[in-house]
Amino acid sequence: MLYREAGDFKTTYGEDGQTFPIRFDRMGYYVTLAVAFGVVPLVINDYWANAVFVPFLIYAIAAIGLNILVGYAGQVSLGTGGFMAVGAYAVYKLMTSFPDVPVLIHVLLAGGVTALVGVLFGLPSLRIKGFYLAVATLAAQFFLVWLFNKVPWFYNYSASGQITVPQSKMLGFYVTGAQTSASAKYLFSLVILVLLAIVARNLTRGAAGRKWMAIRDMDIAAEIIGVNPLKAKLSAFAVSSFFIGVAGALFFAVYLGAAEVTEAFSIQKSFLVLFMVIIGGLGSIFGSFAGAAFLVLLPVFLKNVLVGQLGWPTDLAAHLELMIVGALIVTFLIAEPHGMAQLWRLAKEKLRLWPFPH
Amino acid sequence: MKMKFVSLVVAGMVAAAPAMAELVIPNLSYRTGPYAPGGIPYADGFNDYFTLLNARDGGIGGEMVSVPECETAYNTEKGVECYEATKGSGALVYNPLSTGITYQLIPKANADKIPIYTPGYGRTSAANGKVFEWVFNYPANYWDGASVAIKYLLDQNGGSLEGKKIALIYHNSAYGKEPIRTLQDLGTKHGFTLTELPVDAPGQEQKSQWLQIRRDKPDYVLMWGWGVMNAVAVQEAANIKFPMENFIGVWWSGSENDVVPAGDGANGYKSLAMHGTGMDYPLYADLKTHVYDAGKASGNGDQIGSVLYSRGVYAAMVIAEAARKAQELAGTSAINAVQMRDGLEALEITEARMTELGLPNFGQPFAASCEDHGGPGAGMLQQWDATAKQWTLITGFIAPDQAVLDPLIAADSEAFAAEAGITPRCN
Fold it and tell me: Would you call the peptide bond into B202 cis, given omega within 30 degrees of 0 as the criterion?
């Protein structure tokens, strides 16, 4: 009744090709943006920012990045943690070397550096596929973490190998360092996420995305119809790594403030982001958001229920939390192997017919 | 019903503020993950001491102490979540028992004006109170530990380590890397060669490192390990028949959990100690009456009297004394975090006071000041007796080599001051 195309007439090609062709979707999108930019920053406090919103926004960027590579281009990667580390160390080196440049530029440059590294480690994808490629990217994960731990230049020769973010301001507000307010952290991450999500959405429904999907579905067929596998695969690695690098830079500079490569960017991070993509839905931008929300919010929510409300011992709650999250992932994937995005798609199909199904 | 539950949860996430008339001292503990063998006894000791103060004395200065526990799993992201979740409740001081989390909290402590107390861990150069206004790490830090170990070895070798080979096997993280610079400087001063052997977290895999030790045959092996890494290292050392009396761990590598799994092979292993251990202190009689027998013991109650349990008790004792000092200075019993910092800075622990508390000769006496947040830094050595299954102290307190440490601390804290834009105080 509410959710339908009927009666929504498009008179220009621009209108016809927009991201959300259904009015109800579009309204929902604008309302979400309005709430995210207009309401949340006014009510957010340190706890909500640091425990919920900022990690969610940053993981969403990483998940979109990985989704481009795995979901759209079909190249399996287990190197996400390593690429996030590249972004983090790049932004650290840039911020300490050029303290006067605004941090937004450093974050984007860090993404650029990661894109270069991603292309480098994407080269094997021209020869190998599937599990073999996963192993090659796994090597990237271990090599990069080892590198940042081993070479003191990356952590400016500090005694402990920890990197700590310097304070920096943009438009008169602190955006990194301990003085940063909750809303500044949130808005800074949100602006970058929204920009990157729009870029990702438009890339994936344009020529580039179609080439990636052609390669994913059958690389030989794609080559025959004129898709250059070298360009398609390497551009997927570059774009994906750019997103992941930006996520890593924000993860270190805005969220954690201090990081240690073995702890913050270990193999667990690679798996976490991959789970987000799989649970959210491969080849879907919405799925990246849903997966990130699921895996960031659920543990915090469970902890607050089990310890905060029920008053259980912290260790029991921590163990149960692992079991509940694990069980939910398994049940969820059995019930809907294509992830949350598919559930959303089905819900929309049903909504179109509601209240008069055939 | 569902709405009610959701709103309850949301209310809990937002506030969870206890009655304001309490002294809130959060316990960021870890009872899960690869570091749980160290985290559990420490958290139990920490909780039990405050339970005792509440049950026996009615808290500190008439104020009940509340110790909300939050599980970090030694993970920095969860550490941030725990910090943010508890800081709004009027938290007085943080003791996260993790060097990684400490590094993260140091800038936040300056901004939020909540002190951090890191006995024997954390950022070593926080000993310089001129730069680190909100961080305290007395009575001893990693660099003190490294120097004490070398001094002990000097003593064993008639005052000279010329031409000796010393290997450092360390947890490849901020924590494990801390002593390297000090040991390098000490190596130049005393003429020993240092081999660095990193072990990646969590530390179950050490075969290649011990193979290298078997090949190089170093005279001594020092260890900066934590969690499962310790037990594995002791087992590996026993496997290659390395003389255990030449194997010395830092105070975080010297608990019962680290040596018991290796059985008789661990006999003779040494570690540093910054406080006494065991249940021969009068305090335990009170703990038994008011806490254990009353069924209020934290956790399973199976860690009582162990090394790390004692360290938890020690940390809690220092914090409680600092709170008392803060109440005295502020003239009110309901202190806030800023007054707590003043208490930590004016704290003096004397031998007489420790005896009064039922812990005679438990730790070293020290007095903090505006410049000195690090304490004297002395440490003892203890040795494991596998037949009696107990640690025996084999030396008294050994003072570290301040001539080597002071310039290092000055350099590192100045680097932090420059990075964070801090003007040194106490002038």
Answer: yes
Interface touch B174/A314, C-beta < 8 Å:
no
Residue A7 lies in a domain: no
* Cα A6 to Cα B268: distance, rounded to the nearest angstrom: 83
Query: pTM for the whole thing?
Result: 0.90
CA distance A175 to A257: 11
The DSSP code sequence of A210-261 is: HHHHHHHH-HHHHHHTT--HHHHHHHHHHHHHHHHHHHHHHIIIIIISEE-H
DSSP labels for B238-249? HHTT--GGGEEE
Which residues in chain A have their CB less than 8 angstroms from residue B31's CB?
A: 313-315, 318
B216 Cβ contact partners less than 8 Å away, ≥ 6 residues apart: B165, B167, B195
Same domain, B292 and B223: no
- Give the pLDDT confidence of B196-254 residue by residue, as tens digits: 999 988 888 999 999 999 999 999 999 999 988 999 999 999 999 999 999 999 999 99
Q: How far A159 CA sits from the closest chain B CA (Å)?
A: 6
Residue B270, helix vs strand vs coil: strand
Contact B103 A258 (CB under 8 A): yes
Runs of H (alpha helix) within chain A: 13-16, 23-34, 40-43, 46-47, 54-66, 80-97, 103-122, 130-150, 182-204, 207-217, 219-224, 229-250, 261-264, 267-280, 285-303, 314-335, 339-353
Q: Position A347: which residue type?
A: A
Domain assignment present for B134: yes
What is the Cα–Cα distance from A219 to A252, expressed in whole angstroms?
A: 37
**Cα distance from B178 to chain A (closest Cα, Å)?**
5
Domain that holds residue A144: 44-265
CB contact under 8 A, B177 and A257: no
Q: Which of A48, A160, A315 sits opposite B177 (nearest CB)?
A: A160
Q: Give the ipTM of the model, two decimals please.
A: 0.86
Is residue B50 domain-shared with residue B132, that is, in the same domain? yes
Count Cα neighbours of B321 within 13 Å in the Cβ-side half-sphere.
22
* Residue B211 lies in domain: 142-273+379-406
From the CB of residue B169, how many other CB atoms can be counted at a distance below 10 Å?
A: 29
Residues B178 and B241 in one domain: yes
Beta bridge partner(s), residue B392: B383
A170 — pLDDT class (breaks 50, 70, 90) = confident
In a domain, B150, yes or no: yes
Q: Note whether residue A243 is domain-resident.
A: yes
Give the pLDDT mean for A199-219.
93
All residues of chain B having their beta carbon less than 8 Å from the beta carbon of residue A174 are none
Residues A121 and B374: their CA atoms lie apart, in Å, by 46
Instruction: For residues B327 and B296, state if they share a domain.
Output: yes
Number of folded domains that form chain A: 1
How many structural domains does chain B have?
A: 2
Say if residue B233 is in the same domain as residue B295.
no
In the predicted model, what is the mean pLDDT of residues A30-36? 94
Does residue B5 fall inside a structural domain?
Answer: no
Q: pLDDT tens-digit profile of A190-208? A: 999 999 999 999 999 999 9
